[in-house]
Amino acid sequence: MTLYLLDKQDNIFKLPLEKDIQTEVQAMLQNQYLNFVEETELTEFQGSYNTQKGELNSISEYNLPESILEAIANPTNVEILDLESNIQPKSIFAEIDISGQNVVVFQKVDSRQILGTSYSFIQTKNVFSKLEDRVLTLQKKIVGAFTDEGLLFSSFSQVRSILPVVQYYEEATKEDIDDFVDQELFAFTDEDKFRGGLSPLTRKKIKMIKDAQILENTSSKSLKKQAKKYGIDLTFNDTKQLVFPKKIGTCKVIISFLNEEYATAILTKRKIKMNSKKYLD
Prior knowledge:
The protein is built from 8 helices and 17 strands. It is an alpha+beta fold.
C-alpha cells in the first residue's frame, strides 16, 4: 500500500512509510472503510445534498481522475511529499485490499493537520519537548471510497471538496432559478439575458447554493468584504443589492463565488480557486 496526498491544485504526492507503520496505516484504513459501509444502504445518487441516516450515496458510473489512477498504478513516478513546501492538502488517499477487492479510500484533510515546529510540543511522561520536525496527522474516518460499485459517499459537500463530482449534481429547476433571482440581496441588469445564458453547470451551482443554504444569513456587507479578499469585482446599487451585469462571464464568476469555490491557504495565506491550478495572487 502507498499513501498519497492530494492538494488543492490537484497535485499528488506520495508518503513513503516505514514497513511497520505502513502495515498499521493499512489496517487503520481498512477498518475505517468497514465502519464507513457498515449497516448502510447504497442508493444511487440523485443529485442533491439530502442523505438519510444509514444511507450511502453511490455514483455507479463515476470514473476517478486519470492523475489518481496513474499515481496508484505507478507510485515510483510520484514526487515525495515535502512538508516544508507549504503544501495545501485536501485529501489523503490510498488503494487498499478489502476481501480481495481493490478499494480507493479518501480522507478529507486540510492544512491544520500539518503541525509546524514553532508552537508544537511532544509529551514524554511528565515532560514536554519542542517538536523538531513538521508532522502530518491523519483523520479517524474516511469520507469517500471508490469500489467496484462506483464512488461511495454520505456527504456530497465533503466529497465535492476532494473530487470532481459537480457534473453529477442535479440542475436547478425553473422554480429554483426563480427563487435565486427573487433574492432581495440581488438585482439584475438584464434578467432575461441572465436566465437565457445559464449553462447546465451554472444551473447545478445555483442548485448547490440553494441546497446548502449559503445565502440564508448572507449580507451585502459580508459579500463585499469576502469578494475584496479574492480580487472579485462586485457592484452594489444604492439599496445595497448585488448587481448581476449583462456579461454572462462575469455572472458565472459571481455564482462561483457564491458557491464558495474560493479559499485562502492557511499557511501561505494565498488566495486560490478550488480545483484550480492557479493562485489568484
